[in-house]
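Incident log, support desk, overnight shift.

02:14 A customer reports that sequence design results differ from what the structure should imply. Their input is reproduced verbatim below. On-call engineer (initials T.W.) acknowledged and began investigating.
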């Protein structure tokens, strides 16, 4: 239908509406919270659940299906089936076939056959179980060895990294120290170059008064003429002015008035130095004591002789020499 025909039809029906809008239905209020479930095509492995295994019922008189041999296996524990699981399944099938081939129990011989068969099966199971335990132990030892090797490797790697970090830190500290020393060296060289370029007139040194008066060659005792100080200034006032120095007769008279001892000095050359030791000092002390005693005895004799010279009786004085001191 074209647009023109629609307009013609609507003009023919002026009192009726050709198009009617759908009536709005009251919508119930939306709850603030609601639960929604979404099933995606891809699921994370952590969210994967075990496959569902339904219950089974074996009809009476029917043999057990071979699929029941997989009943002990679960997902992650034998499933999906590997080489070992395939071996166990084939072994269970072979044992089921051998058990079905046994004769029925009708007498003692057939019973003994079944007992021997089951005993042999049990022995084989125990042997396989021991081998499996041994295999699991070997696997655990291998895993433990690998874990120890990995731990030692990680510890060695951490130690090497730590040593490398310490080495880098030491190298960085050394480079920083060398750089600081180089900067101080360059700064000192620049200061020295600037000091050499600048004139030395502006330098001021504090005065050491004690050293100046202690040193007799300092400016206090010997001032420099270039500093404006002349130590010989005014020395002519100390000049001797006399009439004796003007004529020859005056000089001869002055020469005769001077004592002759001033022209002939009596100086003696000192002797060689005498080294004094402790023994020589002790001996000198003993000699001095002896000389003192001799002088005392001589003066005593002279006194006694002078007093005995006026009488007729002669008295003999017996003197005893003192004991000589001993050197310890």
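02:41 Re-run completed on a clean worker. Output:
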């Amino acid at each position: 239908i074209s647009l023109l025909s629609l307009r013609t039809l609507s003009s023919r029906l002026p009192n009726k509406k050709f198009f009617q809008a759908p009536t709005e239905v009251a919508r119930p209020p939306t709850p603030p919270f609601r639960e929604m479930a979404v099933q995606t095509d891809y699921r994370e492995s952590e969210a994967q659940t075990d496959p569902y295994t339904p219950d089974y019922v074996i009809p009476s008189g029917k043999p057990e299906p071979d699929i029941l041999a997989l009943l002990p296996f679960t997902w992650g524990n034998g499933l999906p089936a590997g080489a070992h699981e395939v071996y166990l399944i084939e072994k269970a099938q072979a044992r089921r076939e051998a058990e079905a081939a046994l004769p029925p129990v009708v007498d003692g011989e057939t019973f003994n056959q079944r007992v021997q068969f089951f005993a042999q099966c049990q022995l084989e199971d125990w042997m396989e179980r021991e081998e499996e335990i041994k295999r699991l132990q070997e696997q655990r030892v291998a895993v433990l060895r690998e874990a120890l090797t990995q731990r030692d490797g990680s510890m060695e790697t951490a130690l090497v990294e730590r040593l490398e970090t310490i080495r880098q830190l030491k190298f960085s500290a050394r480079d920083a120290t060398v750089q600081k020393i180089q900067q101080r060296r360059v700064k000192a060289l620049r200061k020295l170059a600037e000091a050499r370029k600048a004139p030395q007139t502006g330098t001021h040194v504090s005065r050491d008064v004690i050293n100046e008066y202690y040193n007799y060659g300092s400016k206090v005792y010997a001032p420099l003429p270039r500093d404006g100080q002349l130590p010989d200034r005014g020395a002519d006032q100390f000049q001797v002015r006399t009439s004796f120095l003007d004529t020859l007769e005056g000089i001869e008279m002055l020469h005769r008035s001077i004592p002759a001892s001033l022209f002939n000095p009596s100086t003696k050359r000192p002797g060689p130095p005498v080294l004094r030791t402790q023994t020589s000092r002790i001996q000198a002390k003993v000699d001095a004591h002896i000389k003192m005693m001799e002088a005392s005895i001589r003066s005593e004799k002279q006194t006694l002789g002078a007093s005995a010279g006026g009488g007729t009786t002669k008295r003999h004085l017996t003197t005893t020499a003192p004991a000589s001191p001993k050197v310890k």
